[in-house]
Structures
1.
Amino acid sequence: MKLISLSLLFVIFGTVQLVSNTAPDTIQLGQIEVRASAIRLVEEIRKLEFDSLSMNTFKSQDLSLMLRQNSPVFIKENGFGGLSTASFRGTAANHTVVLWNGVPINGPQLGQVDFSVIPVFLMDKVSVVAGTAGVQQAAGIGGVVTVDNVPAFGRNLSIEAMQTAGSFSSFGSYLSVKAGNEKFVAQTRLFRKRSENDFYYLNTAAWPSQEMKHDNASWFDQGFLQEFHLHAKNTVLSFASWNQWNERNLPPIMTNVGRGGNPKEYQHDAFSRNVITWKYYIGSLKLANRVSYFNESQNYYLKTTSSFEPYAIVTLIDSDNRFQSWQNNFSANYQKTKYTIEAAFDFGLENVQTDNYLENPSRLSFGLTGGAAFYISNALSLKGQIRIESVNHSIPGVQPFFELSYSPKRLKGLSINGTLGRVLRFPTMNDLYWFPGGNPDLKPERSLQSSLNIAYEAISHRVVSKSKVSIYVSDIKDWIQWRPTTFMYWVPENVARVFARGFELNQQLDFQCGAWKMSIRGNYAFTLTTDESPVAKLDNYSGRQLIYIPRHHGNLMLRADYKEAYLNINSDYVGKRHVSYNDDHLIYDYLPAYQLIGIGVGYRFKYVETTLKVNNLLDKEYQAVLWRPMPGRYFELVFSYKLDIKRNRDVD
Amino acid sequence: MLIKAFRLASELLLFIVTVAMIFSCTKTPVDEPIEYENKLGNGFYVLNEGNFTYGNASMSYYQSDSSKMLQQVFYNRNDVPLGDVAQSMTFWGDYAFVIVNNSGIVWAINAETAKIVSKLSGLHSPRYMIVIDANKSYISDFQMKGITVVNTSTLQAQGTILTGKTTERMVLYQDKVFVANWSNYNQTSTNNTIQVIDVIRDKLTDSIVVTKEPNSMVLDKFGKLWVLCSGGYLNEEQPALYKINTTNLAIESVFTFQNINSSPNQLTINASSDTLYFINNNIYRMPVDATSLPEHAFVDRKNRNFYHLAVDPNTSEVLATDAGNYLQSGYVFRFKPDGTIIDSLAAGIIPGFIGFNRNH
C-alpha cells in the first residue's frame, strides 16, 4: 500500500507527463483490440509477436522455452530450470533488453535477464524486435523482448486454474482471477512451481564414466501479479505489481561433482516491480506517462565444511545484492493519416547496495527522443528519429535512426523495409564498480546497425501465410570485454569491435482442411559474429565466431487441431558453439550441434483442458553449456480449468 | 489454396538452402587420428589450467626427442577430462600427482605414460602437493585453513593440519615444511606469513612474517629459503624478495621492488640451485649471492603475457608460458640459458605449471 501511495505521489507531484511508449499501444475493450492506426513507430515487419496459439501452447512454461522453440532468438540455458539468457543477432545476453509494460527490467548490475523465471502465465502479450535502433527507450544493442499485461474491459468474471505435474518431481500451480466491468478491471495471477530436478545422466567427466543423479539442483519459484485498470472517458489508468521469489540450488558442473566439503550453494532472488501507466487520448493526440519502482534483491550462499575431522566450516559466503530503481517515461504522440510526430522524455535513478563494490553507487539517467514518420507516396513511408541519452551527467550520446518502408500496391501483401541506426549501451554497474577490477572510465558501446526486411502475407478464407526475411549487419565498437591482468583479477575494457551479420527467416502458416486446423511456425537464424578489433587481430582470433553463439539455429512447431483434440510437435536445432577461440580439432573447444523434438497431445472439454507433453522425445544426450548436464526424455501433464461469466450471466 | 501454400513453402525452403550455402562456405577442419606410443619419452608436461568453471583444463607434453608438443594427453590416454583448473604436478618415483583445483581432485598417473593409476577426490580447493615420504604427503588448499595429509602410496586422506590460514606453495627442508599463506580470499586472517610445519608431528610450530602475498618459494644450494611476495593484489605494500635462514627462521635479506604497482611472481631456481628466476612482466635472473635485485631483464616481455616459469633441470633452458588472452591456446616459450629464444610451442588454454619427470 505504501508503495502504491508513493508511486501515486510520484505521478501527481513529481512530473507532468508526456511520454514514450515503445510497445504498440493496445488496450482490450471486451474482446475487441483497438489499435493505433497511421504509421507505427516500430514497424510490424520487424516485430515477431507471439499469437494466441503460441501463448496457449507455452502457458505452463517459462519464457525461455517459448523463445527457444518459437523465435529466432538464441537462448543459452544453464540446465533444466537454470539461468537462461537471450542473445539476438550475435550479441551478448546483456545486449537484450526486456520491457515489462514498457519498463526495462534488466538489472543494473549485470544488465541481463534470466528468462527461466518469467512464467508465460503472467503475461498477456509477448513480442520480440531484433535490433534496437528506433526504440524509444534506454536500449541494448541486440534486441528487445516485450512482455505486457493488457487490460480487457467488460463486465465479466474470469477464473483460470492450471496444475502441472512432471518428471523429476516437478509441479506447478497457477491461478488467475479477473473481474470487472467497462470502466474497471482487476486481475490477480498467482503461481507456484518447483522441481527436484534430480534426473539421472551419464557423467562422462567421471572416471570411469557413470550414471549419476543431478544433485543440489532443485528450484522453487513463486509469485503474484496484481493489476488494476481504470477506464474513464479518454483516460486509461493502470497499475501493475509483479512480485516474485525464486530459490535455486546451484549444482556443480560434471567435472566438479567430486569436490569435497559437502558444498551447499544456492541463489535466492526476490523482486517487487511496480508500474503505473496513465494514457490520455484527445483527438489525434495521445499523452502517456509511465512511472515505475523496482526493488530487487539477490542472495548468493556457499557453505562447505571440512571433509575430515573436525568438520569445521571451510567456506562461508553469504553475499547480498540489492537495488532500487525509479524510472519515468513521458511521451506525446500525434497521429494523422499521413504523418505521425512523437516526443518522449525519460529519466531514471538506480541505487545498488552490495558487498562487491567499495561503495554503494547511484546512477541517474536521462533520455530525450523525438521522431516523425510520414508517407512520401501511397506506397512509400519514411521515418526519422533521434534519441539523446546521458548517464550520470556523461556527455550525451546521440542515437539517430532512419527507416524506409515500401508496400507496393500492385503486389498486395508484400512489404519491404530498410533501417539504419546507431545505438549506445552504457556499461553495467558491475563493469564500473566491481571490486576489484571495475573500470569507471569505460565508455558506452556503440553500434551502427542496418537491416533489410521483407515480409509477404497471403490470406484467404482457408489459408494464412506470413513469411519474413531479415538480413542485418551490425558494427559494434568499444564492446566491453573483461580481460586478465597481472594482479590475478580481471578488468573490463572497451577493446572489442564486433562485426555481426546474418539473416533470419520466419514462417507462419495456418490452414484448414475439413475439420482439421493446421498451424506451422518456423524460424531459422544464421549468425556470423566476430571480433575484428586490433587486439583480436594481434591475438589471432579475429574472424572466429564469438563464444557460445551458434552460426545456425532454428525451430519448427506443427500443430494439428481436430475438433477438440490437438497434437503439437516441436523441434529446435542449435548448431555447433565454440567455447574458446581455438581451432575446432581440440576437445572442449566446441559443443556439438543438437536437435530436440517434443510432442504434446491434448483435449479440450467444456471448462477443462488437459495436455500431455513429452520433451526431448528421442532421449538425446546433449550439453547446452559445457559440462552442464541436461535431462533426457521427460514428461509433463497439464490440467487447466477456465470459466468465463459474462454480464448477462451466461457461462461460456 | 493448399497448392499455393505448398508452393510458397517450397520457394521459401529453396531460398533458405541457397542462402545458407552461400554463407556457410567455410573451411571445415579435418581431424587427424593421433596415435600414441605407450611412453611419452623425454620431455616435460604442461598443465593448461583452462577457464574457471568451464572444466576445460588439459595436459600437453613436449617430446624433446621429436620436438613435438602433444595436446590433450590426459584425455587421449584416459578418455576422461582432466577437470576444472589444473593447478600443479608433483612427481614421486614412477608416478605423478596432478592437482586439479576447482574439481577438488588429485589424479595419480603413471609419470611415463600419463595413464591414471588412482584418484583422490573430496578435497576443497587443492593447490600444491609435497611428498614427505612413501606414507605421507601434504596438500595445500586455497579455501580450507589447513593442509590435508594423505598417504602417498595409497592416496588415502589421513587428516588435516589446521593452520588458521589458507595455504599455497610448500617447500620441504629436513624435517620442516615451509608453507606460504598467499591468499586472504574469504577470510580475515592475514596473508603475509610463511608457516612452519613439523613433519614428524604434523604440527604447526612457527611462522615468519613477510610482505603480503608470498606467492612462490624455492630453496637454494645453501639451504636458504627464498620467498617472493607481490605486495597484495591491490598493491598495498612494496613487493619484496626474502632470503630466510631455514634453521633459525631469521630473515637474512629483503630485496624490495621500487615499483609498488608491480606484481612479481613465479620464483624458480635452476637445477644447481644457484640462480633465481622470476616474472615481473619481463623475466629476470638473479644469482643467489647477489646483493641487489637485477636491473635488466633476462628476457623482455614484448607483446607476450608471461604466466608461469620453469627451468629445465636437464638442459637449463628457461621455459615460460604465455597465457595470451585466456580464451584460446597459449604458448610455451623456450629460451637458452643466455636468454636467446629457441622456439615457441602451442599448448592449451592458459598454460601454467610445467612439470619435469626426473626419472627420464
2.
Amino acid sequence: MTQKPYLHIPRPTARPGEVPDFSYLKLSDAGAVDRPPVTEKAKNIEYLSHQLVRVLDEQHEAKGPWDPSLDEAALVKALRYMVLTRAYDDRMQRVQRQGKISFYIQSLGEEAISIGQGLALAPDDMLFPSYRNQGLYILRGTRLVDMMCQCLSNTGDMCKGRQMPIMYQNRDKNIFSISGNLATQFPQAVGWAMGSAIKGEKHIAASWVGDGSTSEADFHYALTFAAVYQPPVILNVVNNQWAISTFQGFAGGERRPFAARGVGLGIPGIRVDGNDLLAVYAVTCWAAERARNGHGPTLIEHVTYRGGAHSTSDDPSRYRPKDEWAAFPLGDPMDRLIQHLIKLGHWSDENQTALEQETKTIVDDAWKEAVSFGTMSEPPFLDAQLMFEDVFKEMPDHLKRQRDELLALTGDTP
Amino acid sequence: MAGKTYRQAINEAILQEMRRDSTVILLGEDVAGGTGAGGEGDAWGGPMGVTRGLVSEFGVGRVLDTPISEAAYMGAAIGAAASGLRPIADLMFIDFAGVCFDQIVNQAAKYRYMYGGQDKIPLTIRTMMGAGLGISSQHSQSLYPIFSYFAGLKVVVPSGPYDAKGLLISAIRDDDPVIFCEHKALYEMVEDVPDEPYTIPFGEANFIRSGGDVTIVAMSSMVHVATKAATELARQGIECEILDPRTSSPLDTESILESVEETGRLVIIDESGPRFGMASEVAAVVAEEGFALLKAPIIKVTPPFVPIPAAPNLEQLYIPDVAQLIVAVNKVMES
C-alpha cells in the first residue's frame, strides 16, 4: 500500500455548529497513575508523560497515591482564591467591554493551575508567569487595586504606564513580569534557577507557557539548558486546547503529549488534570521536591480548557463550538473543588453564595479605589516626565534634554 | 603599568572583576573551552583565547560553557541577573545577535522601564565584530549601531587595550545592560595598561589628536585608520582633530559639536554601513545642532552598501581605509 506525500493541515475536531469532540484526549482514571519517588530517574518514569495524573474522581472523592491529603482550611483557602480570581476576571472583562480599559485576558477555567501551583511553591520561589496566571499574583498577595491600576495605566500603576494591561509586576513577592513575546521567560526561568544553584540556595524557579507557545524556539532552547545544567526549575505547559483560533494540533499536540517534549531530553515530563486542584497541587509538590533536592527540572503539562476568549480582541464563537467547554471531559475546576468540599461536608451552597457575595464586594471596593487614581479619560494622569525615568538607572544627559524640551511644551516643570 | 594586548586587557578586566565580586559569572559558547584538558591555562578560552585561564581560577560553576543556543544563554543570563548575579554573556560574533535579538532588545533592554523601575538587569554582553579575517558577512559585521537604536541599552566600542579594560570594568559594574563590542582586528594591539582595576565613564569621547582644520570622528579600529591618515595629512599641512566617542550609546554629542565649532569641517569614518549607521547618526546630530558651524558639507567614509565579501582583496576594498579618508579630508578642505 503506497500513498503519495501529502500536506497535513491540522483541523480541530469541531468547528462552530459541529458537535464538540474530545475523543482525542487520553484520560486516566482518578488514582490510576503511580506516584514514583522523587529520586526516580527520568528514563524509568516516562509513563508519566502519557498518562494523566488525576485525584478527584467522578464522585468528587480524592483517590490514589497522588492525593495530597489537604486539610479543610487549605481546601477552603484554595477555593477562596479561585473564586476571587474569577470575580476579578469577571469585573475586568466587563470594564474592558465598557471601554474603561483597552485590553484584558481572563483565566476562566484555568484557575486551578495558578492557585494549585502557587500554594505548592514556597514564597521565595521565583515565578515567571504567562499572561493567564493572574491567580499567582492574587495568591501571593498583590492587591486587586494595584492590579486594576496596572490595567488602567493610571497614577497607581506599578509599571508607571509603560506596559500594556495585564502585564503586572510584583518584585517584592518574587513574581517576575510578563512578556508579550511568547516563551521568552522559559530560558530566563532556567537562568534564574541556575543562579540559585550557583549561589547554593534552595529556591526554585517556575515558568508557564501555553500549548501554542511550545512552538517557540525559546521553549526548546530552555529545555535543552534545563537538561544540560539540571537547575531547580519547574517548566509548565498549560494546554488549554486553543492558541487564539488555532487548536493545540497546530503546536504539534496531535502526535505526542506536550509533556513528552521533555522525555527526549531526559527531563521527566508529567501530564496532569489541570482542572483538578488536588492533582495540580500534588504534581507541583512532587516536582518542587525534586528540584529542591537536586534532582533537576520537571516539565508539567496541565490539561485544561480555555473557558473564555483568548483575549478581549477575539470572538471564539467564530472558530469553535459555543458549547465546547460544557463538553470538556475535565469539567470546571472551581465546580469540581466545590463539589469535593461539599462531599467532605466542609461546604454548602450557602457557603458558596456567601463567598461569591464577599468576593464581589472586595472587587467592587477595589475598582472604586482604583479609579480614584485616574482612568484613561479622567484625571489624575501620569506625569509626562515619568516617560523619561527608568530607561537607565541614572538618566543620561540626552534624556534630560528631551524631557526638558517636552515639559517646556506642556508647561510643566521637572 | 605594562604593555598589554587588547586580548590581555579584556581578560584582565574580567579576571579582576570576578575576583572582586563573587556574583560575576561568565557564560557562553566555548568561554571555558576544553575544561579539564590540562596544559597551559587549562583551557583555550574561546576562538580568540580572550577568556583563557578564567576557568582554572574560578571553576566551571562561574565560567560556564553553554550549549549552542544564543537565545537560551542570553535568556538565562537575564534570569541569572534577575536572581542577583552579574553575568557576562559572551556572544561569539555580533552577527549571531540575529538568533537572540529578542532577548537583548525586547527583554533585557526594557525590563527596568516597563516594570516601573522595580527590576534591574546588570548584564554585560561581550561580543566580537569587524571585518579583516576573511570570514565574510555572517562573522564580520559592525552591527553596534543596531543596538544603539534601543533605549535601555548601553553600547561600548573600545578602540584599544587601555579603553577596553576601563570600559569593560565600567560595563560589568553597571546596573543596566551593556553591549561591549570588541573588534577582532585589534586583539593583538599593544598599549600600556595599568595593572590595577580602573573605570572609564560612558558617554565621554576621547580626544585622540588635536588639530584645527578638520574634525574626524572614528570608533573602534577606524581610530587607527584615522591616526595614520592624520599623520600623512599633517605632512601636507592639514591638521586633523580625531575624536573617539568610545560609546555609541550614550553618545557624547557635546564633544563632537565642540570640536566642529573649532574646525568647521567634519568627516566621519566608520565600519558600520553607510545607511542608518553610526556615521549617519553623527552627521545628523551635527546637521541638526551645528549646521551654522560648518564651512563644508559633512562627508561620511563608510563601506559600500553590500554584504561583506570573503575574498581578501574584496574585503580590503570593503573596509574604509587611509586613502579614502585622505581624499575625503582633502575634499572638505576645498570649501
